[in-house]
User: Which sequence fits this backbone?
């Protein structure tokens, strides 16, 4: 039977094609039982690579059956036919994904970004508390429901973390995800802490939310890696971001895995907790933004454009704000001078879909 006939027998009326790859596709469908539209991921075992069938697909199915969180796409049903096709029936992101949303509308205002980022961070905390890691966090995998709330999707690279005899989480060696969202330790092929890897990707996502552009240009991985390892984060001057927001991004995009924030520290950060923002703002301004120094070559334009085409270009100014801050694990709200400043720039890397690598 074809897909439409299979789904019809299960009570679904197949709709339009939402996406398609070499061995999987996603269709919309109307559920006669639920009385609303759903998404159906259809995987053809005959076309899928062995590594996917033996490792990634079983993990995904196991994890999807465990998850139940308001900011994670719901899985309603998983079934398989005798001819080797797996059907995963899921909640439909009726407003599309976050990447297309930002490409169409531009960067989010901080209040909107805070709401969406809190939803995403809550979902990641839920997963991490269960020792589940996503390992492919990117804007394309963040769907929006009818009210534009975040729904985390695509657990194809997720896994349950293993622990050694002493109870410590074991390192991962498999490169998962997209280069533009990948942490430097992953790009270097170093065995990595998967939860810490997720945090870096969260930092990239928040940057995209508030800047409407990528923090790093992945067209040259070697150059990108060098910039990341120097802990350089360039913020577009035109966005006028608050110090608290830049502080949080800077602390998530920390190349030192021992100093990168944990998910609990993110959720308790002053930017994510609006009531505490006023207290930390003065400290950040005192220690960081009061320093204004030109960066050598700061008037040099980036080769690629970061902001939406329809937005006006900011005026060129050779002077750049220097945001100096240091990740401190001793106090979640403490911000002090840093050895590597982030910079305010006119342009950055283009906002585009990321290719997935394994």
Assistant:
């Amino acid at each position: 039977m074809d897909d439409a006939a299979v789904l019809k027998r299960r009570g679904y009326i197949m709709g339009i094609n939402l996406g398609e790859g070499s061995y999987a596709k996603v269709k919309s469908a109307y559920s006669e039982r639920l009385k609303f539209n759903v998404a159906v991921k259809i995987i053809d075992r005959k076309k899928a690579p062995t590594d996917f069938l033996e490792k990634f697909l079983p993990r995904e199915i196991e994890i999807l059956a465990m998850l139940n969180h308001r900011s994670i796409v719901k899985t309603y049903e998983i079934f398989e036919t005798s001819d080797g096709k797996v059907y995963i029936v899921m909640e439909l992101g009726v407003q599309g994904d976050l990447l297309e949303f930002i490409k169409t509308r531009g960067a989010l205002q901080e209040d909107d970004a805070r709401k969406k980022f809190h939803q995403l961070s809550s979902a990641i905390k839920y997963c991490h508390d269960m020792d589940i890691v996503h390992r492919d966090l990117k804007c394309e995998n963040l769907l929006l429901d009818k009210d534009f709330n975040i729904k985390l999707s695509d657990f194809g690279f997720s896994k349950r973390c293993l622990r050694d005899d002493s109870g410590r989480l074991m390192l991962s060696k498999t490169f998962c995800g997209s280069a533009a969202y990948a942490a430097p330790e992953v790009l270097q092929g170093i065995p990595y802490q998967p939860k810490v890897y997720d945090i870096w990707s969260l930092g990239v996502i928040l940057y995209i939310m508030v800047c409407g552009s990528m923090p790093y240009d992945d067209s040259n991985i070697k150059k990108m890696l060098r910039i990341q390892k120097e802990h350089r984060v360039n913020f577009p001057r035109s966005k006028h971001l608050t110090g608290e927001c830049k502080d949080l991004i800077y602390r998530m995009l920390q190349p030192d895995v021992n100093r990168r924030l944990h998910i609990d520290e993110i959720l308790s950060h002053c930017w994510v907790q609006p009531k505490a923002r006023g207290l930390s703002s003065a400290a950040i301004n005192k220690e960081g933004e009061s320093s204004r120094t030109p960066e050598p070559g700061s008037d040099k334009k980036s080769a690629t454009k970061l902001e939406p085409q329809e937005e006006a270009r900011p005026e060129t100014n050779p002077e750049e704000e220097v945001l100096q801050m240091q990740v401190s694990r001793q106090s979640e709200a403490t911000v002090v001078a840093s050895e590597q400043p982030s910079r305010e720039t006119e342009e950055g890397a283009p906002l585009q879909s990321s290719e997935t690598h394994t």
Q: What stands out?
A: Confidence is low (pLDDT under 50) at residues 276-341. The chain is about 30% helix and 15% strand. The first strand starts at residue 12 and ends at 20. The longest helix spans residues 110-129.
